[in-house]
Amino acid sequence: MTFSEFADYVTVMSGCMTIFGLGGLFTWGIFGRDRGGLSTTVFKVFAYSIKTGICLLLFVPFLLIWHLLYMNLILVVVGSFSHINYYWSSEDAFQYLFVYMATVVVLLPIYCLSCLSVYQWSLAPFITFYKALRHRSEDTTIR
């Protein structure tokens, strides 16, 4: 193993520790008022920091999906990639704003529901959202 390979492993490990550490810092503030025992609080913080880390890691595939969706929509709306700026053009401002809003409207609810599913560790948020879309307000509670 060379030094550069070792440095790559250390970089990946430190990145994971940073992701889980930020989640732990966030969740420690949430459970700071909890009056349970120290071990219970530590386990809750650990579980929520892992779930927060999973949500942060889920953001990467959603960015890739957003990029593909954006690329396809901008190609459809503006026309061709040969004469456009990829992320913004003052000449086609309304088209770019439409594409940004359309991609956010589609992907943001799915990402939020995914994070809620991770925190609840079930598919109940998706089921509740589906029932709410069907306009059956009496069926939106999960039993």
Task: Tell me briefly what this model is.
75% of the residues lie in helices and 0% in strands. With 143 residues, the chain is mainly alpha-helical.
Task: Describe this protein's structure.
The chain is 75% helix and 0% strand. It has helices spanning 3-30, 38-78, 93-120, 124-133. The longest helix has 41 residues, at 38-78. It is flat and about 60 Å long. It starts with a helix and ends in a 10-residue tail after the last helix.
Write the layout of secondary structure elements.
Layout: H1 3-30, H2 38-78, H3 93-120, H4 124-133
Defining traits:
mainly alpha; 4 helices; 143 residues
Q: Tell me about the biggest sheet?
A: none
Write down the overall geometry.
flat
SS elements, strand count: 0
The low-pLDDT segments are: none
Counted up, domains total: 1
Q: What structural class do you assign from the helix and strand content?
A: mainly alpha
Query: What is Rg?
Result: 21 Å
Q: Please give the count of helices.
A: 4
* Separation, N- and C-terminal Cα atoms: 54 Å
Proportion of strand residues: under 5%
Mean pLDDT across residues: 79
Helix residue percentage: over 70%
List SSEs in N-to-C order. HHHH
